[in-house]
Fold these 4 entries.
Entry 1:
Amino acid sequence: MRALPMAILTILTASAPAAAQCSDAEKTKLKEFDLAWGEATTGGNRAQLLTVYADDYAGTTPTGTLGKATTIDNAVRQAERAKASTQPAPKVTYDNFIITCTPVTALVTHRNATTSTMGGREQTSYSRSVHVMEKRGGRWQVVGNAGHALDDAAVLLYMENDWNEAARKHDAAWFERNYAAGATEISGRTGALQTKSEVVASMRTDKAVLDSLGLSEMNVRVDGDVAVVTGVNHVKGRDEQGKPFNMRARFTDTFIRRDGRWQVWATQSTIIP
């Protein structure tokens, strides 16, 4: 059983005093604003982008700082090139949002997954964006932006988080895609070994409920196209009979890079008494 919540960007999630925090509803609006901004950028919607960026916007890039006009021009040109190309346009998805805000300022960070097709095969690259926003004239605007590509260790930690969510939701499709051919899983509770097809089938029938998840002692080692992630899971939930359980398990996950992406090759966990 997987139970691995993300342990990334702790500094960015440090809370301001409770009295200064914005509401959950406002955080939802910020996420919606961010997603709409992404769509406007991909589509090259100049009119919308003019309202998204503040006049004093400053975006940090590897080559320097860009202002509002240059940033919008670049987005429009890139969208026009994508529309004119005979190749399928890259697909960009945004997830793993972390939002910290006051009623008039916000720090929004999320993961970006860009998937393109090369030689008939999908290739996905990952990055992280950090946006600084301010509410001006009653509406949010972007005043600062920065981002960076994720290295293999960060990609694997995010993958552990995705794996965790897939287990919570019994998302068999995730296991079908992200378990490599020949992957094996050894249960920490029973010691039983399952193949990929057996794991996928169990996800479709499993009735266990995960109520809370905890992670500690995460460590990532990467050597070429093979990686090992270790850590400790603290899992609380209810089994198929509704009986509560509360357990900690030390795990070892082995990944292999195939078809240009990391895939689960083997996983094993041991219950800690």
Note: Confidence is low (pLDDT under 50) at residues 1-19.
Entry 2:
Amino acid sequence: MQDFLYRGVLTDLRVRFSYAVTTDTANNAVLAHNCDPISAHLLCRCIGAGVLVAPLLNEDERYTLQWHYEGALKSVVVDVDSKCRTRGFVNPPNLTDLVGTEEEIYGPAGHTKVVKSNSKQVLNSGETDAGLLEVTEDLAYFFSLSDQIETAMTVMVGFRPDDIRPVSLCQGLMLQALPDCDLEQFDRLRQRLNHPQCRQLLARQPQVDNYFEHILGALQETDGGRIKYDIAAAPQPVFHCPCNREQMLQLARNLPQDELRDIRQKGEDLQISCLFCSRRYTIPADDIAALLG
């Protein structure tokens, strides 16, 4: 099954939603950074969350989502644009040998930062405490507090012993309250989203075309009746990094001049890797000489 993203509105409840399967996108991110299981799980959840918020963007806009914690997990950064082109990285990419408990992953505190920009400028940015110490819940809290839009979000991830396709499933759902939404009713939906019945459905590969209706059926248990909704397809999620050689040359220009002179005198090539996709770029010694003028 190819990755997909749907967006829509639960019309009677005045709730906006986005629903996505991002298995291939998450798998490519994990392979790009050679993540171990713990780091891979966190990166997949953040990639899925990034895709879920993509429908909030206008044309030519992008989100840069940042999670920073005080535990062994230092940071996760995900970049997504309005066409659902997504990239990201986790630091460190290998957490298994560094932690013994979940508490050690996040540590005692953290913060979440979201930057919205377009090709010309930063449009706005905000930061909140990441006190829930769970990446999707901390991002939902950011939108609830900073953007004052009540938000609930969950992303389920599965793995398999396969070196080529280690991610077997990455599937998520986001709910946001629209104006005139009954917030008590929304809170019941938020609680229901974490109910085992909903989590089990989101942890399974969709098998039928109307699988989303089964998820809605699990959500409606607290409210009764049939949930009416409008739904539309959004751009297909894809792992994509627009890095190029010119960007890497610009990074090299920012290195200390003494360091560049030392590399040039040794006749060595300069190796630079993109943080978002791990693609390696080689800058020959002659180009380093040009950087030095």
Note: The chain is about 35% helix and 30% strand.
Entry 3:
Amino acid sequence: MSKISNNPLLKGVSGMLGKTIVFREVRGKVVMSNWPKKAARPTPHQIIMSKRFTDAIKYAKVAMQSTSLKEAYAAAITPNKFTAFHVAQTDAMTAPVVHSINTEFYNGTPGDELTIHATDDFRVDTVCIKIQDPYGMLIEEGIARRRSIREDEWEYTVSQVNEKVIGSKIIVSVRDLPGNVATLESVL
């Protein structure tokens, strides 16, 4: 791929030259490259990725119609993500990550605190908590609240008694704005 700079004859040019060379504009610069070759038949992985990419484009188009989302995504523009649309598209293709569940202060009594560390490339929207006893019975579930000190930490205050803490399971589900979900389980 060749970059062409400061050539007044090629300023704003795009399209094909013959059947082998393509001119296009990328980030304000004219780029010359070979005609792209298409694979005969896509692999299963390529089909999955194509679907994810198409869904991400659809999400970004819808997000750009919302003034508040467009402004939020515009505030996250970086040198690698140079438009609000690109930030939204990348957000739709990237799932959040649950890094840890801090159960140090959980003893099975109401008022105990669970702390969750979760991140996303843009923003974590909701963090859901489920607590199950050692036999898989649901003790309680609810939504954690964002800590005011650190944006990537969430707190959940326990409201139900758990008489069998050892062997209990805490399941955390994190969702971002486009709806990507990540989960993490911790067995006590």
Note: The radius of gyration is 24 Å.
Entry 4:
Amino acid sequence: MKILIYIRDAEKNNAITHYVNIISSELSHNSNYQIEFINYIRDINPNDIVFVISLQSYFRLILKHPNQKIIFWFQGITPEEVVTSYSGLYSKLKVPIFSILEKIVLKKSIFNFFVSNSMLNHYQIKYGYNKNNYMIMPCFNKAITPNSFYYNHKYESASFVYAGAVIKWQCLDETIHLFSLLKDKLKNATLTILSNDQQEIRPILKKYNINAIIKYVPLEELEEELAKYKYGFILRKDLKMNHVATPTKLNSYLANGVIPIYSDVIDDYNSLFINRSFYIKVNIDNLTKAIDDICTFEKKKIIVEDIYDEYSDIFNKYYNETEYRMKIRNAINHFFPL
């Protein structure tokens, strides 16, 4: 029996590729299945099992084969993302369509991958999803890099980094605003923005009268670059789409010993950092408290071995690729047709 991995070029990035490779490699361990990556629906037969990662792909697929056996990776909650990203007629038309598709997928799929406990809870409340044909695996694509924690005494200086694009929901404007206020308290603080969107970033820096280094770093050099910084920003607004998310950025920061400054609206991260020490949780609607919390943390003396031990524990418990691979193999035995 074939399991086809159907991912369109527009859906691909490095984090997705890593996530999908974990899943596909474990599926291939079962001799009952032949795994193939495909780009076109015409290559799919009605009796194939198909792995898809978007409602758009699912819609195209069921138009041709309404009873196709599906494995689905829910990266986000698409209707709520459409509401946030679009307005007017587009939103009014797409939101109910995507909601219907979500409900159908949850009802008919062989197996589902969710990125957070919060996402599972969302579907349980919204659609009454009560099946056990799922597993939760957060978004990640990096292993911990011990040498990054010892880079050039980095914990002795207030160096901040933002790695990402100028996308509204990633809150770069809010990040620069926060740093502009922080700079009044921490005179020696520095900000580096790792992005290819330099033309869009400069007006935001000018708006808040901030000097920052902007540079593009190829993906293969990103870990080496992140190793240079003490703090990394992951700010998000209080939106449902952010409640259920597990941004890959946290994985990249922790892997390289970068202390995350993250928004308290990311539900699974709030659970992740319970009884831990090396993080700063902020609310972007209360920047005064955020500044106070960052300045208080900055006074803390950091022992490199302590932060490395804490982040290693997170990788052992939360980003443990071996454990997720075992869960996928167990799922194959229980939920997949022979």
Note: Residues 48 and 124 are 28 Å apart (CA to CA).
